[in-house]
Amino acid sequence: MSEAQSDEPPHFDAAVVGGGPAGLAAAIALGDAGLRVALVAPAPGVDDWRTTALLGGSVDFLARHGIWDGLAAVAAPLRRMRLVDATGRLFRAPDVAFDAREIGRELFGYNVANGALVAALSKGIAQRDNRIVRFEALFQTLDHRGTGDILRLSSGETLSAALVIAADGRKSGVRQAAGIDVKSWSYPQEALVLSLTHGEPHRDASVEFHTKAGPFTLVPHGERRSSLVWMDRREVIEHMNGLDDAALSAEIERRAGSVLGKMTIDSPRQRWPISGFQAQRLAAGRVALVGEAAHGIPPIGAQGFNLTLRDVEVLREIVASSAEDGRAFDGVVAAKRYAQARRFDIIGHVTGVDLLNRSLLTGFLPVQAARAAGLWLARDVGPFRRFLMRLGLGAR
Ligand SMILES: Cc1cc2nc3c(=O)[nH]c(=O)nc-3n(C[C@H](O)[C@H](O)[C@H](O)COP(=O)(O)OP(=O)(O)OC[C@H]3O[C@@H](n4cnc5c(N)ncnc54)[C@H](O)[C@@H]3O)c2cc1C
What we know:
The chain is α+β, with helices and mostly antiparallel strands. Helices cover 35% and strands 30% of the residues.
């Protein structure tokens, strides 16, 4: 090998930047589709105490890639979902219950701790060390070259890749380096996240109380145990977070109308900012955006990561279909096809969740009336209710 050749950075079919659930899932899916993958992921930072409700095809995705075996034992099944109008407004919506059996499914999905999800995905990465090379460093810069983009990392290493997947979250440096702008908007809300035990069984049902300040959602997370995502005005979350465990447990029980009996917090608490954003484009050149590098939505109806796994599955399909056609892998073509394929699902879900959140916050009576009418329809009209359930599971 000549000296000039040995100076060339190592080349990969794909470089995935980001070690959150989106990046880990993307690296696994692309590795399993036959690509040689570089995963640029720093060592995990703060613990994430959230849980993720994996709906519809998300569990199938994890099972197909051999990840589900490590999660099944710690996952809580979700059979029913209840929406309760706790707005106390003039146009009060009825309570609506969704049951997975109505759409021919045993379950809507499973709720898992984010820590367990990331650990299972990380194990999957380690098991694929013949196809996935992990660089424990931060992405720094991107240079375009004819056969591949060059990525420079905080460790001083460089690598080149035919396709670059930005999975580096809401402040994505790869997205910026690719020159893709984001449209973003804010809400006056924050989320308080914690887990708690309760006196009464949840019967595999989640319950989402819709208040004037956002949803307050309890999701099964073990035997007589649930996780809570409480969205409220920032000042309310700040005040509640200042209470001791006993006082906060009592306040949560009061807001839940004691539906699950006496509550006792049994995890640390975390506050999460709530915002919405969407990248103006999903791809540029060899770069494709997945997960929160591409879209961010408030945690309503458990849509965020389920939307992400659909991003990843579409990428995998595109790579697999180019291999079946016998064509050499072309990162620019793959990124372009990906952007076309994902556009409408992402716009639809970002817009839908934004409207749902705003319909709770608004004081505008016609919008409140429309929201209440929609929920009356969901309760009383079977085909509409089933349509909503399928939409929530990601049907396009
Ligand atoms: C309160 C709350 C509850 C939620 N509940 C649900 C739910 O029930 N169901 C659901 O589907 N979704 C849910 N979501 C959404 C879901 O949690 C997110 O969509 C998901 O965690 C985002 O994953 P990600 O990998 O895209 O981003 P992140 O988790 O932000 O990961 C980005 C990664 O990129 C890394 N990174 C950043 N910069 C660089 C760099 N320069 N180089 C290399 N790496 C870098 C970071 O270290 C990080 O590891 C919820 C969200 C919130 C806020």
